UniProtKB/TrEMBL annotation, chain A:
A GO CC annotation given for this chain: plasma membrane
Annotated keywords: Cell membrane, Membrane, Transmembrane, Transmembrane helix
Membrane disposition: Multi-pass membrane protein
Any single Pfam family the record assigns to this protein: BPD_transp_2
Membrane-traversing stretches: 50-69, 90-109, 129-148, 155-173, 179-200, 209-227, 261-279, 309-329, 335-354, 361-382, 388-410
One example GO MF annotation: transmembrane transporter activity
Protein name per UniProt: Nucleoside ABC transporter membrane protein
Predominant location: membrane
InterPro entries the UniProt entry points to: ABC_transp_permease
Region Disordered, annotated ranges: 1-37
Cellular localization per UniProt: Cell membrane
Source organism of the structure: Arthrobacter subterraneus
Superkingdom of this protein's organism: Bacteria
From TrEMBL, chain B:
Region of interest (Disordered), residue spans: 502-536
UniProt name for this protein: Nucleoside ABC transporter ATP-binding protein
Listed Gene3D superfamilies: P-loop containing nucleotide triphosphate hydrolases
Location (main, coarse): membrane
Any one GO molecular-function label of the UniProt entry: ATP hydrolysis activity
Amino acid sequence: MSAANGPNAEGIAEGTAAPPPIPGTVETPPAGGDDRGRGILKSIATGSSLVAILAVVLSIILGGILIALTDEDVAAASSYFFSRPGDTLGAAWAAASGAYAALFQGAVFNPRADSLALMFRPLTETLTVATPLILAGLGVAVAFRAGLFNIGAQGQIILGAMFAGWIGFSWHLPFGLHLVFVVLAGFVGGALWGFIPGILKARTGAHEVIVTIMLNYIAIYLVGFLLTTPSFQNPGSSNPISPRLDETAVFPQILGPQFRLHLGFLIAIAATYGVWWLLNRSTVGFELRAVGANPFAARTAGISVTKGYVVVMMLAGGLAGLAGVAQVAGTERVLTSGIAASFGFDAITVALLGRSHPWGVFFAGVLFGAFRAGGVQMQTLTGTPIDIVLVVQSLIVLFIAAPPLVKAIFGIERKKKPRKASRAKATVSGGAA
Amino acid sequence: MKLELQGITKRFGSLVANDNIDLVVNPGQVHCLLGENGAGKSTLMNVLYGLYEPTDGRILVDGKPVTFRGPGDAMAAGIGMVHQHFMLIPVFTVAENVALGDEHTKAGGILDLDKTRARIREISDRYGFDVDPDALVEDLPVGVQQRVEIIKALVRKAEVLILDEPTAVLTPQETDELIQIIEELKAGGTAIVFISHKLREVKAVSDVITVIRRGAVVGTVDPSASTGELASMMVGRKVSLSLNKAPATPGETTFTVRNLTVPGAGGQNLVDNVSFDISRGEILAVAGVQGNGQTELTEAILGLHPHASGSVRLNGRELLGMKVKDIIREGVGFVPEDRKVDGLVGSFSIAENMILNWYNEPPFAKGLAMKPAVVLKNAREKVAEFDVRTQSAEAPVSTLSGGNQQKVVLARELSRPLNLFIASQPTRGVDVGSIEFLHKRIVAERDGGTPVMIVSTELDEISELADRIAVLHGGELMGVVPGDTSRDVLGLMMAGMTAEEALGQGPGQNPTPAGEGGTAAGERISGEHAAGEETR
């Protein structure tokens, strides 16, 4: 096997050298055609952080252009663009910068508030919104690291919220103990919804993407249905809303009653650290990463790939379930069919932007939280539709999915096969010694 | 047609894959490109074939400069290439494969294969290829598939034929046939570029040898040069080609395989009723053409084939049915055939790969928590001990050269007490300099009293290491013969003859066939083999 081939021929060689699938064994890691797609998705999920940052910058610039294009003042000034182009450009700048300033005011710091504490209220709002994004994002990221695409965070959040909510309003336990049960139930609910695709993948090879998407639908309609049954629906109400959670079952607000920021945020920090430790410092994480990076080598080293799939999906589901807990016991305090909003789908974006690294996910979650929290303020103050935030978020994902595009726009030279270069270096030093 | 490459340079970023290479290929000449893996042979040929654009330099055909924008241009100019991995569609017939990309059509765009069939027969008869145009490619032996590739090039009127590592997948007999075909083509005026790193065949087939090292031509030599000379040119320093291992002193037989069968998907058995023994302190080498059940045999021993039947006993314990993890704990060291796929996690650091299958054992882990400092310390020690050339033990293992990657795998497997050591293709894709080192470590493991099983498709390696040789063909054991059995006999066995038949047909050295897996016979023959070693 000659390794002298350049990138092209080597690709061919690697393609054909894939070992034949072993008949009749479920233990066999995903074979053949699936691998290439997996490789691409994996590189999207775990690429360089520079691309992530540049993608954000680029998206914000493009978002600014969009804001300017849809602004009325800009439209008015553009009617006499050729006589006084400065007016148009000035109006465009004013529109974009005004909108983003409002976004910042709504997301981080509001200098016009009455007291210093209230000035920082937007930041606490950002962190409140970020909490479920971080937790669910971790759930998606941890599965990514084991080579699985957990599209099911939405359903796992719902199941987590359902379990936690039910314990919260139907059990009546003392303060502290009740909350522990609520949190545990949420984790278990999410883990259950992760266990199903995990075990199906391990036992039958069913693709986790399809299974998790279907489980999302099941979860959405399941919670909708349960909220019409007596055990979940608030007595005396015809709306699909549960009773309020007991006071003993909700997260305390950690900065006092004027801020919504609750204990869930501290759980998100702890979970981020926990996932980091688990992935990078524990034997379980070693197994999961090995399974994700090369299931064939993992199998040969005696690591059970199938067990890895089940464990990681339960963990992923559990983390997303905690996001559900943060929603039902932190922010909403009642169970509704819209409890998960679109957090489960945004979590995929968050995991992508965070490069599937726990702290990357944390900061990506905070950023998206800021977009959400600030978007409202932006719409109220400047009339810029909040949808622009969604556009910016989507652009971020789009750019992350196409690293060469981002690099080309910023004029970063594409490194040609750095792997080959360093290999050559090793050979050179080998020959010299 | 005379083909010249002048000052060809190809850079990938900062890496210079080809550095100012000059090459002249004359009609009716076999020009051999000799170089280690990674020396830049294939890159050069891909430049010539129009797959890469050279950074610098030019290509001349009959003295006129040409530019190739793709393989199509190269083919039109009369250059044909047989890739190492065949570019054939298995479910198509020979004629369909040959026609592909160059189809003759009747009115209305209907495919006219008759013309192609006629051309195939013509070429086949002329060079004695013996290829049926209507056979399905997937039914053909590898050697014949290779001829289909050559026919593809000839049908397109190739006057220069590039053969990229053509013997990698052939039996010794098929290699001989290929060399004959090359002679025929040469006599017909075709120029041939023969790419290889195997010294023996290079010497046998070529008229001119150009040696390439680290992307640059180090010299052009006559085939009469000694193999030692060629090897040191390739590697850039003196290498010893023979191992000079001490005779084996086999101890008690601790590893026995009985009636091992691995069922395949299509109903046929990938490993069919195979039995053999290995004693402490001896190396059993398993020979065979690639894809004849060797891979499955080793994988079944490691527990990777849950449907395997029969018996695999190590120190009296039945391994079959145990989990891979437990088999590794029984003291089985395993070097898989394809280290990049099965042996290493490319994105993991060298340190992590060094503990890939004992990451959760002390001292590397305590409970759930791993100990990165211990892991790193272990890696630094092993890097030094096994002479892994790297700047850091924390570098991803994918940044290492093939030889150094293999040292990582070997370091991991040989660094714990073993009761059985299995290595598949231990030196495939490894530079000549590292081969020596790896072989010495394997022999050292044998001398430490471990039963060793080596699987290799390279006969040179088999005869270098083996105390006894088992030959597999179509998943069946053709016999176990002494380590100094001649290449001819081994070749016949690899083609499907039993040991008895092959010895009857062969040149008749070694008149003593070893009993299939018989311990007593094996030990007796090991003794004889030892005597042979000393006189060599």
